[in-house]
Protein 1
Amino acid sequence: MGGGGQQTESGEPAKSAGDGGPGAVGSGRGGGNLSVFTWEEVQKHSHKGDQWLVIDRKVYNVTQWVKRHPGGIRVISHYAGEDATGASANWWNHRHFQHHAKPNVFCKDPDVNMLHLFVLGDSQPVEYGIKKLKYMPYNHQHKYFFLIGPPLLIPLYFQIEIMRTMVTRRDWVDLAWSMTFYLRYFCCYYPFFGFFGCIVFFTFVRFLESHWFVWVTQMSHLPMDIDHEKHHDWLTMQLNATCNIEQSPFNDWFSGHLNFQIEHHLFPTMPRHNYQAVAPLVQALCEKHHIPYQVKTLQGAFADIISSLKKSGDLWLDAYLHK
């Protein structure tokens, strides 16, 4: 995440970890005057003004350098006090890349920021219930999901969020380019549909796209483990937050090969059509280390979205009424 070998802004060299037994950062190979740190020591440096991270068994003090990180402070700070070896320097601070960095982790994965519309997982519903928070009738969220989630995510929320992000980050060049898209769109379709017809057509296409996007992305994430930071290792964290949908010509086509969501998270830059080739290798690795590798049917995955929402809603209601 820090470039695979970046030093701090002050040029402080990386501190390699030696073979300190269980709990040590790893075995150092550089020798010299490099120091050795345990994981407990590294984890103490996970605050805003004091951040260390580990890349390839070397400890880096990135407290000052995070300000110059090309992906922004937020995404690299997710790994303060942790092993960041698996994170690519090309993962910018866009919401989807934060999702890949910390999938299904509250306060770090923006995709589980539901704006109080839904409660997810097992812990959040109970926390809301104990605090008597009732922004929505969460015990019915598995029903109103159909009215809020699939139809409105892209046509409404994403459109607002995209514009807001460009303005708040002062990405004026991006904003100008995005405006040219709408200009070109109206220039192409206005002669056929008129002004209001163009708006209706654009909204309808986004409406259809939004349904596909929500079902395809959430079938592999929403029913999985959603919780606060647990500091799991990279592989375990990705496998706990994702599952695959069984391979078939239709499922591959319908999902754009995102039915191999596990492989997509482990190899995000790999061309999607290659996921089916590496899936057996990943599955064998998971079996070797006793890490669950879940594969579902398409229908079962869709049903699990609703059942997981209902389960979370019931947990909220029980905590709201009785705790």
Protein 2
Amino acid sequence: MSEQIPHWLDKQAELNPDRLAVETYMGEQISFRDLRKRSRGMARALIDEGVKPGDHVAFLSDNTPYFPIFIHAISYIGAVAVLLNTRLTAPEIAFQLKDAHISHFYIGKGYEGIADKSAVGLEMKVKAIEELPILNELDYPLRRELPFEEVYTMMYTSGTTGHPKAVMHTYGNHWYSAIASALNLGINSNDKWLICLPLFHVGGFSVLMKNVIYGMSTHLLEKFDAPLVHDAIIAKGVTHVSVVTVMLQRLLRLLDGETYPKGFRCMLLGGGPVPERLLQETSKRNIPVFQTYGMTETSSQIATLGPDYAFSKIGSAGKALSLAELRIDSHKRGEVGEILVRGPMVSKGYFNRKEEDGIYLRTGDLGYEDEDGFLYVVDRVKDIIISGGENVYPAEVESVLSEMPGVRETGIAGRHDEVWGEVPVAFLVTEAGVTVEDVRTFCNKRLAKFKNPAEIHFVDALPRNASNKLLRRKLFHLLDGETSE
């Protein structure tokens, strides 16, 4: 029999009924007692709509208070929440609705048009989440326990090649991910985690799970907005924020030489290696940066590097969290190979796809461990550029270029070359005055010749996904009308 726990929102409403569960930048505040009441009321409305245990229910919404209400409502029924990326086109959404076997489709305000186009020809109703009544009747069979082995959410991978796949997360996956993070970062009664990553993404969603498992307050933003994040840390008691490098760079510009309040405990930084120059700046201002590695399949972070090792292990993502295991598919320590992971936070697989054989999950990422067992993520397997028989890792070149004064953002992608097979191409967002010659001089001093960009393009912005991670496959779409050599 599967391990079960009392429903986590019931438990928080019992233990911390008046504690703030969710607040928004607009000033709305929801306690754990009220979150439970509204979630159970929505669950009753969903049941009246025909949602049953085991149904796959799609949700397309921005970051609003309806998001946590909805996902807890789904858990009270025992259905599965399929969380859709708000940046997708109608054909992309239509594929996921079919692929995930969706029975019901709920949307947030502003998505009526694209949702109707996506659902054409499918036997499902599209309904606005704001139109669902919050019912008060008590004679509904709502769940009291949560089975760890049961699938709770599905989120699609980004689909860099071929069609995306729906990652199945169980209640246990989310539980153990939150517990592993707590064992690493600790928990204080005054913790408040700011959410600016999209909630349909595992980085944002994982904070909602920490919220209900820890009884921790959250500060919810619709999206990343540097001034709003800055204000929340300075004036609204935020103690934790999850960001990627480009977000942190924008926040530092707003600090203007100052630092954050002493109560600020964690800047959880994902999305790849961090420039040393950025680490030096955060250290100078006493900002606790925790560099981390994770993915949708691991329910968020699975390895983390604390501030104490920021300079002795520059470029490292740290070591596997206490409940996780990690190894490199290579012949010896220090050699680059595919990163393999396992643990109770690792997804049970992909919906409607053949199960992978083996104990470990093959991440598709390349990395190595140093002599002390610290992980260094080199790149995605599919992003490697093979130039003249030599492997060029875009993340390594990006890391070097990000150290150059005047360079704000960097992206490296490979293009076909008749002589070398492939060559690296650089796309840079820079301050005024940076020239192609400056970049070439900088690279020549720090990179082997085969790693030097064959072309350098200056662009206004780099393509990023909803969580601000770089989309290297879209870099060449930027070439029209840009300054380059």
Protein 3
Amino acid sequence: MGERITTNKTNYWKSSEGPVWALAPMEDVTDTVFREVVLRLSSPGNLHLLFSEFLSTDGFCHPVGKEKVVHRFHVNDSELELIKRDNVKLVAQIWGTDPEKFYKTAKYIAEETAFDGIDINMGCPMKNIIKKGACSALINTPELAREIITAVHEASDLPLSVKTRVGFKSVVTESWISNLLQSEADAIIVHGRIQKMMSEGEADWNEIARSVELRNQINPDIKLLGNGDVMSIEESLDKVMEYGVDGVMVGRGIFHNPWFYNPAYSPAMEERIEALRLHASLYASTWQGVKPWSILKRFFKIYTNSFPGAVQLRAQLMETHGFDEVEQILNDFLLEQEARKQAKESEAEDAQ
């Protein structure tokens, strides 16, 4: 699980200076393996907060269910080393509807894990989640949402944030965000969509700006980050300047470019392939026998693009069942590319 690496109780939300850049919590994506890969590909200083996959407090507090979900709290030692090196904070995201279970889970996070902070999921729009009254459905029960925040605050002195949306079936930014601003949260991360939109349509950054205005009026000490449709650090900076947010959280943008937090860098084909190899190797060594190989396949496309032969390479990788097969395919591809390069150079010499 990793030993705790926070030796002081400094609240990073209160002590942060300048824009805060965060990688969003994503199910079956932001595990310890992918977080480490992102850290390795990032330029130090460009990434401040890494969020975990979201963990069910119901599952965690269930005598049998705990074993099925606790892997989301796993942190590899190799990730911890990079976190120390880059002074990045690791945040555990949790979800549910029972304040008492939130209390128990938060207490465990604070006392038994390597996480530096806690985030409450009040934004996930998935139907199987909201039918339980959890995540974005909590927008409809503001009093329960406040009770949950209070429970987590009482269980732990770790920095506390809430990730949410601007409404459920319709936009209710003013009433909902005002409610959260009167809670014990240190930060609010606002996704510019309502639950009904899922991930479709355009994120409404004007509603995020309205959230900033409310923050400035009600509780200026709370940090407020924006989230939605940001595809580069440059665009993140534009959002900070235009909408007044204290930083930006990025989700799907990382799939368009794993080097998102190293904006001046343009990786060559060989570097993309080696990043894929690293990711697959770490996944195999971390999750063999715990998580299926098929989960990893969603990542192949983010590395195998923008170079000749990428489509064919990706098709081969999608048929793999383990790391040994991936390594063989990558090695064969690189040998083939080198042979083609040498053949072209030979032809050029003969033509002179």
Protein 4
Amino acid sequence: MLSEESAATVRATLPVLAESLDAITARFYDTMFADRPELLDGLFNRANQANGEQRRALAGAIAAFASALVERPEERPDALLSRIAHKHVSLGITEDQYVVVHKYLFGAIAHELGDAATPDVVAAWDEVYWLMAGALIAQEARLYARAGVGEEVRSPWRRWAVTERRSETDDVLSLTLRPDDGAPVPEVRPGQYVSVCTRLPDGVHQARQYSVSHSDSERIRITVKRVDATAAEPAGEVSTRLHTDAGIGDVLSVSIPAGDVTPGSGDRPLVLVSAGIGCTPMVGMLNALADGSSTRQVLLLHADRSPEAHPLREETEGLVGRLPRARSVVWYEDGGSAEHRQGRMDLSETELPEDPEVYMCGPLPFMRDVRTQLLRAGVPARSIHYEVFGPDLWLPDGAPASSA
């Protein structure tokens, strides 16, 4: 909780700081990487730096956390940070790195605000930062402990061998992985992801997150969509590397499972909504339900370009068939049939179960549209959860920010 003095200062300066946050975060990353270029080797995603998504996500997170502190002082806004904490543990973020971030972030604040960065203003926002950092550090410590990562060896990374490689579509590949050291497979909650870190041709290591589409006691499977990378837009450099080079017997550096968009226990109906490669966490959920002989009511909703472009299509159909109370509705922009609907996802003629938990994954415009349809159909905002691949640039009003 903010002190009364700091709360008043933050409330008064939040509009001004919010207007400058994009410039502040841009300078923060620029100065930090100029001084500490090694942070781009295996820790920060340089594709998100190139396209500006990381700084926009950081600015949004800071603004949302500060707003919650001053607007709802009786509540702890830690839930806002759950998604960030999970991403951090998948990358091995450590407590000391928050000190490094503080140095460059507050240097950027002083530079961008100029004379407006008075000692009182800086002190108030310093309190916000350490409340936010402290909450993240505490959450991350619990996640590390849950995954068996100890204080002495605080690394989420292990070596995993590729045991199977399978093409799902022209641009989607599944890799089955087994721990190279013979150690047990860590618990993977349905819908979670792992980070894969690989060395790129220029010598820099980069990590990306991929949903676990299936797991058991001996192996996990990740499903990777290839994105074509360019010098100006390196977003697909890791996926392209995996598609091109990852073969059976190769060993990859893989993190502990992370992610907080996982179905709750109980028997509430599930509605799983996806588009394109967003199907992968949903397939992970379906596999877990089928392997557990679940009798839970499940409605699967998926949109794609065509049956040929639909990743894991046959497996998904088989999983729905294994669940006694599951059904699916699929939309294809091309190639609609009597079994599938034509065009974009339209829920106006789809009967939704009563009081469902909804989990979504796909492009942000798609999820915004479907969420609006769900709200109109009477599904409460608190019951709609979403996973986003990459920095979270969408915090919809009334939606749980931590619902990754």
